[in-house]
Amino acid sequence: MNREGRGATAPAPLSTPAPTPAPETFTGNRALDLEEGLLFEVGRPEVSGVDLPAPKGGADRLGGHGRTAALGLPGLSEPEAMRHYVRLSRMNYGIDSGLFPLGSCTMKHNPRLNEKMARLPGFADIHPLQPVSTVQGALALMAELSRYLLALTGMAAVALPPKAGAHGELTGMMAIKAAHMAAGSSRHVVLVPESAHGTNPATAALIGYEVRAIPARADGTVDPEAVRAALSPEVAALMLTNPNTCGLFERDVVEIAAAVHAAGAYFYCDGANFNAILGKVKVADLGVDAMHINLHKTFSTPHGGGGPGAGPVVLSQALAPFAPVPALVETDGTLTLAEERGDTGAEQALGRMSAFHGQMGMFVRALAWMLSHGADGMRQASEDAVLAANYVRASLMDLLSAPFAERPAMHEALFDDTWLAGTGISTLDVAKALIDEGYHPMTVYFPLVVHGAMLIEPTESESKASLDLFIAALRDLAMAAKAGDTERFLGAPHYAPRRRLDETRAARAPVLRWTAPEPLPDAAE
Ligand SMILES: *Cc1c(COP(=O)(O)O)cnc(C)c1O
Questions:
Q1: How far is the CA of 493 from the centre of ligand 1 (A)?
Q2: Rounded to an integer, what distance in angstroms lies between the CA atom of residue 172 and that of residue 49?
Q3: pLDDT digits (tens, 9 = 90+) for 33-78
Q4: pTM (whole model) above 0.70
Q5: Checking DSSP bridges between strand 454-456 and strand 443-444, what pairing results, if any?
Q6: 464 CA → ligand 1 middle, Å
Q7: Whose CA is nearest to atom 2 of ligand 1?
Q8: Is omega for the bond preceding 308 within 30 degrees of 0, making it cis?
Q9: For strand 327-331 and strand 454-456, is the pairing parallel, antiparallel, or unpaired?
Q10: Centre of ligand 1 from the C-alpha of residue 274, in Å
Q11: Which residue's CA is the closest to the ligand 1 atom numbered 8?
Q12: pLDDT single digits (tens) 153-186
């Protein structure tokens, strides 16, 4: 396979002579970097990993509707299947291969202890339809996790079922809507700051609310005056992220919450950034009515690439009666799941947000993380995450431009693209060049309130040596950009298995179905 451009334009490593242009290889492989075709190209329809004896006669019970042609699925032997997926996995980047600076996503190390606990047969091999008398241990774990989440947030109730942060947002906002409806109110507006994650306005709009934006003030936080000016008897809730997506703690959050409550509205807090305040702040003290917690971010579970997630939502006393089912109920030392509205004693419960009780494997991982850290360890994790982000920011501030730099950052460091002015290089080009340096790119162009944003969240997992190497790589890139080495950026990535992709076309016109280059003799469909 031809992957032109590699080698010829590479910056010379310091320890070896300048490379001559690399020759093409016969196989398209480059040593350990192995080319791999699609499953359909690697396999053949006539091959199977298992040999089943042909059925011995017997009546056809399909009434003549049986398939007459082959399925056309690729067939692979076990070693072929293994190699296919291992080769693909080696083209990917994960937290197990290196620092993963993707801001807002909290890509921290996932301790193997958590994985071991989640694989215990008593958790991994049970079925949600088993009688509850046979799964008391699993329910006890859910009850213990609930107690921890309530202790960490100071809130009154928690609903475990939501399957992601966005799903938790939806659950919390539906509880708020249900509470308004129960009170006979038809408020139809939700206030969302401009810096919010896209899931906030999407959630409000999905359940029929009109979204009104609150502008940020010059220091990157929300002004209580702006909230007061937007509040009215039409407003059902304010959705606020704290610490916010600019990496700043909303200092006026208590005043904002009081204004929201005085206007008869609820305060929804986006808790995706909980890792910055874990063990330091009880969100109930901030006046929060509902908040989702991304277990996969704060309490570590391998995530990204579409899953898995778990987004339990904590609720205030006022919203607790509106929590969804199924919910854990303890009677005389026996745990059960209240499956229907009213089973919890709360007639106003939302009903179901998902078929079952939530993501069991992630509950186990989250509790294992909490128990192995303890109260002091969790507090230290958030302190280290904040320290690491501020170290990254302080180490790059002379070369990159950082908005809102007069205040310390929380657990992420935000840069804009002012420092790239006149270089012909964009934020996207810097992200692509970071791939060549062996890093996953940082989050780019989010939050929207910052031009050409680069959001870096190192998390508490990284050693100082690892942070220093990452900082040095970014400093080298920044100096190269300023020195006019545009080729290093505009052609990047030079060293990835694939070069610059048309990401817009990939998102807008995805090719989801393989078509055979020439008709296969056996391919049905
Ligand atoms: C990650 C994130 C979400 C959404 O969480 P998912 O688990 O990805 O659905 C919402 N808000 C913020 C600020 C986030 O970082």
A1: 27
A2: 47
A3: 898 999 888 888 777 777 788 888 778 888 889 888 877 788 898 8
A4: yes
A5: antiparallel
A6: 27
A7: 272
A8: yes
A9: unpaired
A10: 11
A11: 165
A12: 999 999 999 999 999 999 999 999 999 999 999 9
